[in-house]
Amino acid sequence: GKDGYRHYMEKELHEHPLVIGQTLQRMIDPATRKVVLPEMPFDLASLPRAVITACGSAFFAGVVGRYWLEEIARLPVDIDVASEMRYRNPPLTPGSLGILISQSGETADTLAAMRGLKNAGLPILSVLNAEHSSMARESDVVLGTVAGPEISVASTKAFTAQLTVLACLTIAIARARGELDETGEEELVSALLDLPSRAAEVFTHDDAIRKMASVVAEARDVLYLGRGSAYPVAMEGALKLKEISYIHAEAYAAGEMKHGPISLIDRTVPIVATVPSGVLFDKTLSNLQEAKARGGRLLAFTDEAGADRLSAIAEQTIALPKVHPFVTPIIQTIGVQMLAYETALLKGTDVDQPRNLAKSVTVE
Ligand code: M6R
């Protein structure tokens, strides 16, 4: 049941802290505070590249994973949505690792793309919530997201669990490749272990998120902006808004705005910005200043360290808990998913069963 929540989506949103914690318990040894992965039939140290494929939200989790694997593990990554990957026939570097991400383990395009990578000789590592699924049976290694059943068509907790697994995988690959020493690993593991309690604090912002939703609910179009690993969070926020509130939303890499979409900006197109403090903060802020100068209404998700400077330019600013920069996409995700949920409530849509959508897309 819904345990007293109005919708499964609301219940599942509130399960973020629990699910992140359960997933970490599977992947981190509490005694050594080290990431421990199951036995792998390939050597993590000698992978030349990784090829990631998935659909929808799972694809956005993969995009965050790409930023992590490239930056922290220094592993070259190719990524595409499975519906493209399955027909691209890309030249594959022998020995590369195929990584798929799926909540259901049954998505037709992801399964087909997986079979393509497998037939080309790549070992397959799957990040799956359904551990008894078609993808699980055909993978060489399964890393389980311990999210429990997800009923709402809009994915919430499965997405943050996917990010949690990809973060641990990044640490393991980085260590194997000699890119992360003991201190480095301890720092990243601490950041992950800190997440369940920080994630729970996001819900204390529900009033502020509802206030933001009242602006979004009035709009016909919404622009989501972010840079670096906050860019796929913007994509996730935009998809979730479209999916359940039927408001048109588009995510853009903040730096791309002046190459086109800035022409859309006026008072009627709110801008939801995901801007954690960190190396890309100033760059994103200057993109937002440009948008504001053209009459844009800024609604910003930042953290305690970024709040002062953002509130100087944004109409509404939400200061999410300050976490290590590595894990900011996980915290920011909860904020944008809650915004979509609150907006859908205001629109009165069928949150758990949005029109035209199925939980699991088992046809092409
Ligand atoms: O079961 P999967 O993770 O393979 O599903 C992939 C997408 O269909 C899914 O994430 C979809 O985009 C969600 N409805 C997003 O909320």
From TrEMBL:
<comment type="function">
    <text>Catalyzes the first step in hexosamine metabolism, converting fructose-6P into glucosamine-6P using glutamine as a nitrogen source.</text>
</comment>
<dbReference type="GO" id="GO:0006002">
    <property type="term" value="P:fructose 6-phosphate metabolic process"/>
</dbReference>
<feature type="domain" description="SIS">
    <location>
        <begin position="40"/>
        <end position="179"/>
    </location>
</feature>
<keyword id="KW-0963">Cytoplasm</keyword>
<dbReference type="GO" id="GO:0006047">
    <property type="term" value="P:UDP-N-acetylglucosamine metabolic process"/>
</dbReference>
<dbReference type="GO" id="GO:0005975">
    <property type="term" value="P:carbohydrate metabolic process"/>
</dbReference>
<keyword id="KW-0808">Transferase</keyword>
<feature type="domain" description="SIS">
    <location>
        <begin position="212"/>
        <end position="354"/>
    </location>
</feature>
<protein>
    <recommendedName>
        <fullName>Glutamine--fructose-6-phosphate aminotransferase [isomerizing]</fullName>
        <ecNumber>2.6.1.16</ecNumber>
    </recommendedName>
</protein>
<dbReference type="GO" id="GO:0005829">
    <property type="term" value="C:cytosol"/>
</dbReference>
<dbReference type="GO" id="GO:0006487">
    <property type="term" value="P:protein N-linked glycosylation"/>
</dbReference>
<dbReference type="GO" id="GO:0097367">
    <property type="term" value="F:carbohydrate derivative binding"/>
</dbReference>
<dbReference type="GO" id="GO:0004360">
    <property type="term" value="F:glutamine-fructose-6-phosphate transaminase (isomerizing) activity"/>
</dbReference>
<keyword id="KW-0315">Glutamine amidotransferase</keyword>
<comment type="subunit">
    <text>Homodimer.</text>
</comment>
<keyword id="KW-0677">Repeat</keyword>
<feature type="active site" description="For Fru-6P isomerization activity">
    <location>
        <position position="359"/>
    </location>
</feature>
<keyword id="KW-0032">Aminotransferase</keyword>
<dbReference type="GO" id="GO:0046349">
    <property type="term" value="P:amino sugar biosynthetic process"/>
</dbReference>
